[in-house]
Structure formats: structure tokens, C-alpha cells
Amino acid sequence: MARNIYIYLLIMAGVTYAIRVLPLTVIRREIKNRRIRAFLYYVPYVTLAVMTFPAIIDATGSAVTAISALAAATALAWFGGSLLQVSLLACAVVFLLDLMIR
């Protein structure tokens, strides 16, 4: 059975368009429910985290160094470290642990 790529592209375009248009047409007024507003506020952050976390674990080639760097970077960020400090710490942890493991 031959598959037509244009049918797949048409379905994908329709679903993508519907996802963006339906909220604009169905919800005409401002959302006042606090729970729904809070949920919608955090959706981009959760999406970014879900996309980034697996890449962090696979980036170093070793789950031990990746999880250690993630923990160290998260702790420094929690206590107010800048983005540069957090990224340098994560790189240093991966580098030092990689030297110790080999």
C-alpha cells in the first residue's frame, strides 16, 4: 500500500491550525478562573522543562555526570547564581567527574 506524504502533511497542518484557532474562537472573553489562569501560566515552563531534561541527561554520555551537574546547577540557581555562574559550574562538574571516572 503506497503512502502519500501530502495526506500526512495536510492532516498535520489541519491539526496545528485547529490547535491555534479553536481557543481564539471558542473563548471570547477573559479567563477569570484562578486555577485555569495558573495552569495556563505554567504551561510554557513545563513544556520547556520536558523538552530540555532528556537532552541534559544524554548530553554528556554518562548519566552520573549529567545528573551530578544538573543537581549542582539547580542548587546554585536556587541560591541566586547567575546564568553564567550556573552554566560554568555545570560544565566544571561534568569535566571534573569525567576526569575522575576515566
Automatic annotation (TrEMBL):
Entry keyword set: Membrane, Transmembrane, Transmembrane helix
Domain of life assignment: Bacteria
TM region(s), chain numbering: 6-27, 39-57, 69-97
Pfam families: AzlD
Name of this protein: Branched-chain amino acid transporter
